[in-house]
Design brief:
The chain has two domains: 126 residues, 3-Layer(aba) Sandwich (Rossmann fold), CATH 3.40.50.2300; 69 residues, Winged helix-like DNA-binding domain superfamily/Winged helix DNA-binding domain (Arc Repressor Mutant, subunit A), CATH 1.10.10.10. The protein is built from ten helices and six strands. It has a six-stranded parallel β-sheet, with helices on both faces. Strand 5, helix 5 and strand 6 form a beta-alpha-beta unit. Helix 3 runs parallel beside helix 4.
Length: 216
């Protein structure tokens, strides 16, 4: 599978560097680039990428706002934040906006490539230092003891699918494990997201951590 990537960063030199870095990957195809949120939305509609590398500091809107708008219009596009910002304010806002990954620009190239491939497979990738923020958020959360068993009326099978999704399994992997079809997995996933009022894979992961279903 070739991963179609859109690069969004207001610095042309950064985009050029990313193209040089990713051009050596056989499964990656750079299909477009944008220097602003408006361009990102237009290019997403034009080239239909599978993964967007999104900077947070854009000149017209933040990458957070751009991510939210793109996910609302193109929910199947996966977005990985690639940014200099490593504080929790930006991190949690990007996750809540629908990002599937968060990688600081200081990360090793291998980390970025791993994040891209994870996002393309419908998984969530968080740079280790950012994942620690999720753990801390979970540990500091003030939650009632019964919260762990309140899962919005999920059926037993939906609970199984929910747990496997939160652990990073793909639809195909879940289907094989539970001996059901990928279409059935997708139907369960849609029901889970509706019942729990979740809108992205990253929201699902954070919800699972808060409920104690998985450990970060």
């Amino acid at each position: 599978m070739t991963i179609r990537i859109l690069l969004v960063d207001d610095h042309a030199v950064v985009r050029t560097g990313l193209k040089m870095l990713l051009s050596g990957q056989e499964d990656v195809d750079i299909v477009g680039e944008a220097g602003s949120a408006a361009e990102a939305l237009a290019e997403t509609e034009r080239v239909q990428p599978g993964v967007i590398l999104m900077d947070i500091g854009l000149p017209d809107k933040t990458g957070i706002e751009a991510t939210r708008e793109i996910k609302a219009k193109f929910p199947n596009v996966n977005i990985v934040a690639l940014t200099i910002h490593e504080d929790e304010e930006y991190f949690f806002q990007m996750l809540n906006a629908g990002a599937s990954g968060y990688v600081p620009k200081r990360a090793a190239p291998e980390e970025l490539i791993t994040a891209i491939r994870a996002a393309a497979n419908g998984e969530v990738y968080l740079y280790p230092s950012m994942a620690k923020l999720l753990v801390r958020d979970y540990l500091n959360a003030d939650r009632p003891s019964e919260e762990k068993i309140d899962l919005g009326g999920l059926t037993e099978r939906e609970h199984e699918v929910f747990t496997m999704l939160a652990e990073g399994a793909s639809n195909q992997e879940i289907a094989e494990s539970l001996v059901i079809s990928p279409k059935t997995v997708e139907r369960h996933r849609e029901n889970i997201m509706r019942k729990l009022n979740l809108h992205s894979r990253s929201e699902l992961v954070r919800y699972a951590i808060r409920k104690g279903i998985i450990k970060a």
